[in-house]
Design goal:
Layout lengths: L1 E5 H18 L2 E6 L2 E6 L2 H14 L2 H15 L6 H9 L2
Length: 90
C-alpha cells in the first residue's frame, strides 16, 4: 500500500511507519511543503524494483518476455511435470 505522509507527521510516527514497511511492505511518499521529496520502502521491495528495472532495460530480455507471453496466449505451454522431466534429462 502506498501512503503519503508529511515530514512533520513522519517524525513522531517513524517507528510505526517503519513497522508498516517491514511487516506489510507499505510504501510511503514523504512530502515537504506539499511536494513529494522521498520514498520509503522495504529493502526487499527496493531490491525487487532495481531487479525489475535491470530486466526492463535489457532489450533481449524484454523481447524474450514478449515472445513468452505470446506463446502462453497461444497455449504453447508444458506441464510442470514435463518441465521437470526435461530438466532432469539435461
Amino acid at each position: 500500500m502506498v501512503n503519503t505522509i508529511t515530514l512533520k507527521e513522519l517524525r513522531p510516527g517513524l517507528p510505526a511507519v517503519i513497522r508498516g514497511i517491514d511487516t506489510r511492505l507499505d510504501r510511503y511518499i514523504i512530502t515537504k511543503r506539499g511536494k513529494p521529496v522521498v520514498v520509503m520502502m522495504s529493502i526487499d521491495d527496493y531490491e525487487g524494483f532495481l531487479e525489475t528495472m535491470e530486466i526492463l532495460t535489457d532489450r533481449d530480455a524484454v523481447k524474450r518476455i514478449k515472445r513468452s507471453r505470446e506463446e502462453i496466449r497461444k497455449g504453447k505451454t508444458i506441464s510442470l511435470e514435463a518441465l521437470r522431466r526435461k530438466i532432469e534429462n539435461v
